[in-house]
Amino acid sequence: MREEKKRLREEYRRRRDAFHNQLDTATRGLAFRRPPSPLAKLIEQSEVVALYSAMGSEAPTARLTEFLIESGKTICFPVVMGDAPLEFRQVDTVDLLESGYQDIAEPGASCPVVVPDLIITPMVAFDRSMGRLGQGGGHYDRSFEKHPEATRIGLAWSVQEADDIPIQPHDVTLHMIVTESEIIQRVNMTS
């Protein structure tokens, strides 16, 4: 299964990059600007929202971060802690982010650790059964297990949809997936 996941990562990174490269700057800037209604409702019900710092062709989070700050939500970003679950640290402004693990922007050590109610995660690929293929380090799966009460939302471009993501026992599925064109969600959001 490891080789199958590696092959899928390569394929879907290529798809994501090609799709992203064909978008004009204005379209990229408008994508994921305001949360669609079902996600907005979940955000409204949450106090602490975890986001990620988008890299390269990942679904952008900058505009969503601005929206959450304007909405008065407590926002946090992940910090990689080796093989441990991610540590989510609160920031009041993205100016508090600095280069961290693999040059991904993350909060500094002086930012307080918080527990998220809602975790918005990047993906390499996803499927309709709410399976998520990440970068392969297992950071988010371990974090989902550590914070089982947090709602898990995947953010991706529609071209990242796969027919079937191979799921292993340690893989944790999502509650909702938001793309630039569609919302996919579980019927029962509590599991």
Summary?
The chain is of the alpha/beta class and 191 residues long. It contains 5 helices and 11 strands; from the N terminus they run H-H-H-E-H-E-E-E-E-E-E-E-H-E-E-E. Strand 10 and strand 11 form a beta hairpin.
User: Average pLDDT, to the nearest integer?
Assistant: 90
- What is the tally of beta strands? 11
> Approximately how much helix is present in the residues?
25-40%
- Counting DSSP H or I runs of 4 or more residues, the number of helices is 5
* Shape call: globular
Report strand %.
15-25%
| Major sheet strand order | 3-2-1-6-9-10-11
Helix-strand pattern: HHHEHEEEEEEEHEEE
**Distance between termini?**
25 Å
For the largest beta-sheet, the strand count, sense and barrel status come to: 7 strands, mixed
Structural class: alpha/beta
Which radius of gyration do the C-alpha atoms yield? 16 Å
Low-confidence stretches: none
Give a verbal description of the structure.
- This protein is globular.
- It is built from 5 helices and 11 strands.
- The mean pLDDT is 90.
- A hairpin with a 5-residue loop joins β7 and β8.
- It has a 7-stranded mixed sheet with strand order 3-2-1-6-9-10-11, with helices on both faces. The protein has a two-stranded antiparallel sheet with strand order 4-5. The protein has a two-stranded antiparallel ribbon with strand order 7-8.
- The longest helix is centred in the first third of the chain and has 21 residues, at 2-22.
- The protein starts with a helix and ends in a 6-residue tail after the last strand.
- With 191 residues, the protein is α/β, with parallel strands linked by helices.
- It has helices at 2-22, 25-30, 37-44, 62-70, 139-146, and strands spanning 48-50, 74-79, 87-91, 97-99, 105-107, 118-122, 125-126, 132-133, 151-155, 176-178, 183-185.
